[in-house]
Here is the input.
Amino acid sequence: MKATIYFLTCLTLFGCNSSSEKTNNNIENKIETVNKKEYFKLPDNCFGIWVNEKYLKALRQTHSTKKAGEMGVDDFYRISKENSIMRFDVHESGADNILLMDTKSTGQIFSSDKSEAYFKVKFKENYLIVDNDKYVKAPALENGLVNLVNRTLFSGKYVIDGKTIQFQESGQIVGIDSVLHFEVNLDYNDAGMQYDKIYLQFKKEKEPRTYLYEFVSDTLVIFNLKCLTMNDDNDYCLEVEKGNVFMKLKKK
Here is the structure.
């Protein structure tokens, strides 16, 4: 899923056999210390996807999922049961690590085998704080990140041809009989990604159609996609541009 974030630090062993044995002993001691220490149970409200508030700020400033993703702030954590924690971005996933809590609100991230200690974390005022960055929790759903992006950038009431319609946080579109659902593209690390993309699901159609979008002041403009260069071998568009306007929706 842009600036790839590698979260796991590699441990390299140098020197002769005696120094290697010494290093291995240090690791074993560290693991033993971590295993012996008693930790607090991670509260249930900590589980889920946490989104760097810088990414949400970038969405609000640019009104573009493409531009926001290219600013290097698409930084997320997924905290699962068994204290598993994974850092990822819109293009790639990182390693599965483990979050152990020293208190009910503070803890530290370790490698999965507990041989390496990484960032200290804190849960404070509905934020996850890691290395001074604040993360906002997404809705507690499988596609919570997408819903949070919709809430930040798209959801609300619009007027088209004198009629009021609604884009909901879930992606549902209410008020247009022919179009049922929308989903915006988040990952632009591929060919044919020169502009912001949005996918519209039409009634009685199995696959969504791909369009380009742009916010012009308080108006969401959706364009037909025009393919300039096609990869004939894979039937895939390598370069796109804006075609004719498909619809204009003025935000209420």
User: Anything to note?
Assistant: The first strand starts at residue 48 and ends at 52. The CA atoms of residues 106 and 122 lie 4 Å apart. The helical segments are 17-36, 53-62, 65-69, 144-153. The two ends are 33 Å apart (CA to CA).
